[in-house]
Amino acid sequence: MHRLMDMQRAFGHEVHAFSTKSPKNVYSKDEKYFVTRYNLQQPHSLGTQIKIAANFIWNVEARKALSHMLDEVQPDIIHIHNIYHHLSTSILAEIRKRHIPCVETLHDYKLASPNYAMFDHGAPCERSKHGKYYNVILHRCMSPKLSYNILAALEMYFTKTTLAYEKTVNLFLCPSKFMKEKMEDWGEPAGKLRYAPNPADLDPEPAPLGGGYILYAGRLSIEKGLANFLRAAVTFPELPVKIAGKGPELAKLEAIVKASGAAHIEFLGFVPPEALKEIRRRADAIVLPTISYENASTSVLEAMASGIPAIVTRIGGNPELVTDGENGFLVIPNDVKDWQRNLRRFQALSLEARRKMGANAREKIKHGRTWQQHTELIFSYYREVRGQQKV
């Protein structure tokens, strides 16, 4: 979002932001409009819990703040990112009331499902399809806490009864074709869905590769599918693996490696961005073993833009980025034997062949996925909805 805002300013546009208050926020000239943010992971008093629950459905503070901002700023167009759980659909009422053209980027599946990752208990989950949002409660898809699941289901029933998004947003921008098809399959209006592939910054020079290792960089959580990837990787002692990141699965993943006696797999913990960039540029490939509906992975796009091959699972938007044997390899999700087969394929490649794969990946970014191309595409959708508004 910040990168897009920078690009828009570079094109001469006036850009504003509306968000919640947070110590982690970068400076914004618009922060006077920002509203209270509650940490949903921390314990709160009963009164605060009630307020959080109410805001989950309809945030009065957010609606009033945005109303004030819209009257002062008077935007020509509004671009929504993630507003649920904190800002709520209350802000859509103010946009709708003023008939302001509006687009929304779908970073996840919340438009269709209360389980916005469509992932539960270790596997993709579509139990909420056809309006069966009560399944979130029955199976506790969102959290072990019953109350959180009840809130998520109630919020979704309210949102779909009022059609808050569908009546307000002119176009929904899908970063992957998989996302677009999934939204259509779940009943979202096909006429309002547009493909807007996520972009990446091209490094000035291709990565040299040659470090002899493969790299995973990201959160260590169950949906990333690292357990079975590591069960395969421990059988290739001549192919070192570096794991950068932290998360709830760390202890389990370390135990898998320790039990095997493998010494070629290294857990790096959290690595600052600049240091991680250098580690990635020396990697011979990056891996993304996700077992969930990956939308359009930033880590894969960044690697491709650097000229690094990617070994990813054949799920979600991953096959749109990686063509098997051309700029990387595609693996059956959660399949240890198929991971072994593809690690063996990669291991057999010479460094020259790996660099050729990386060059192919870089070419894919050049043709349709640069930030310049992405920004121009977004502008074309802005023009489209402004044209709709005038009709």
Describe how the helices and strands are arranged.
Layout: H1 2-10, H2 46-57, H3 60-73, E1 78-80, H4 90-98, E2 102-105, E3 119-120, E4 123-124, H5 135-138, H6 146-162, H7 164-168, E5 171-174, H8 177-185, E6 193-195, E7 214-217, H9 226-233, E8 241-244, H10 250-260, E9 265-269, H11 273-282, E10 285-288, H12 298-305, E11 310-313, H13 318-321, E12 328-331, H14 336-347, H15 351-366, H16 371-390
Parallel strand pairs: 1-2, 2-5, 5-6, 7-8, 7-10, 8-9, 10-11, 11-12
Antiparallel strand pairs: 3-4
Helix pairs in contact: 3-4, 9-10, 9-14, 12-15
Descriptive report:
With 391 residues, the protein is of the alpha/beta class. The protein folds into two domains: 16-199 and 373-390, Rossmann fold; 214-366, Glycogen Phosphorylase B (Rossmann fold, 3-Layer(aba) Sandwich). It has 16 helices and twelve strands. The strands form three sheets. Strands 9-8-7-10-11-12 form a six-stranded parallel sheet, with helices on both faces. It has a four-stranded parallel sheet with strand order 1-2-5-6. It has a two-stranded antiparallel sheet with strand order 3-4. Strand 1 (78-80), helix 4 (90-98) and strand 2 form a beta-alpha-beta unit. Helix 9 (226-233) runs parallel beside helix 10 (250-260) and helix 12 (298-305) crosses helix 15. The radius of gyration is 22 Å and the shape is globular. The model has no long low-confidence stretch (mean pLDDT 96).
